[in-house]
Design a protein that fits this description.
About 50% of the residues lie in helices and about 10% in strands. It is α/β, with parallel strands linked by helices. It folds into two domains: about 210 residues, 5'-nuclease (Rossmann fold, 3-Layer(aba) Sandwich); about 60 residues, DNA polymerase, domain 1 (Orthogonal Bundle). The chain has a seven-stranded mixed β-sheet, with helices on both faces. The longest helix has 22 residues. The two termini are about 35 Å apart. The relative contact order is 0.14.
Length: about 280
């Protein structure tokens, strides 16, 4: 059962711990809220106050969950990997306005400067043509080398739920105004998807994901769930035994690659010395 951050039992707060923050998700939510209020345009001063408010929220969250450090993740452009697989990936979304692009860039600069001023508490990661989701998956995989380190994923993105793992990886899902934040664990994510959360990409491989404009294969969700349970969540076994799935194999494999987060995409961009630095930074 999800609980507000403020109601976390003391045994849930362990040290060491790190926040892994979906920076674009934060900035976009705040931009939308700000533009609704500022009908005559956004004043530069209010933008800086907003960034400072995000920082304050995250520092308070650090204190509440016992985390000493945060890593800010940002999208930079469209996912080159996913667009190559499916050119219409997220194709139903409107182009970002110049005002939004400037706002996102200002936010990245704000947190980059924060890293420079306090590198032991803050880090940031971004790569051209890569989504923050893939960087988060890389960090979850990499930090498994530190089994006593608890990771708090800070995002309202349901894609990140597939990364939750026991007591090691939890998610803080915040409201757009950051006025209330709920903690989700792996069991909560399992209940949300109606199957083990790490198997969700295999379900969406059949059903698609409307939020990212990933099309359905035409196979009913109920049928896909039945197959997954019957064949032990093995896509290969489903293709082998179910002719209807076999006929759509290429679509299913494509959709799985579009929704599955395993960290490999970001791993190709991270130099070995950078990966070693992150582990040392996390342990320090």
């Amino acid at each position: 059962m999800t609980v507000p951050v403020s109601d976390l039992p003391s045994e849930s707060i362990s040290s060491p711990a790190i926040l892994i923050v979906d920076g674009n998700c934060f900035l976009r939510a705040r931009f939308d809220a700000l533009t609704r209020k500022a009908k005559k345009g956004i004043k530069p001063g209010s933008v800086q106050q907003l960034f400072a408010g995000i920082r304050m929220y995250l520092e308070n969250l650090q204190d509440k969950v016992g985390a000493q450090k945060s890593i800010m993740l940002f999208d930079l452009g469209h996912s080159e990997y996913r667009v190559r697989l499916f050119p219409d990936y997220k194709g139903d979304r409107p182009e970002k306005s110049e005002e939004l692009l400037e706002f996102l860039e200002a936010g990245r600069i704000y947190f980059k400067n924060l890293v420079r001023s306090d590198p032991m508490r803050w880090q940031e990661m971004m790569f051209n043509n890569m989504e923050a989701d893939d960087i988060a998956a890389f960090l979850v995989s990499s930090f498994a080398a530190l089994p006593n380190l608890r990771l708090w994923l800070v995002s309202s993105d349901h894609d990140w739920l597939q990364l939750l793992e026991g007591r090691r990886v939890l998610q803080v899902r915040y409201s757009p105004g950051c006025k209330s934040s709920l903690v989700w664990n792996e069991k909560d994510a399992d209940e949300y998807f109606g199957l083990p959360c790490r198997q969700w990409p295999k379900l969406s491989a059949f059903t698609g994901d409307g939020s990212d404009h990933i099309p359905s294969t035409g196979i009913w969700p109920k049928t896909a769930r039945m197959w997954l349970e019957q064949y032990g969540y093995s896509l290969e076994s489903i293709f082998k035994h179910e002719s209807e799935a076999k006929a759509r194999e290429n679509e299913v494999r494509r959709n799985f690659e579009l929704t599955n987060l395993n960290g490999k995409i970001a791993a190709e961009k991270v130099a070995p010395e950078e990966a070693e630095y992150l582990l040392a930074w996390a342990e320090a």
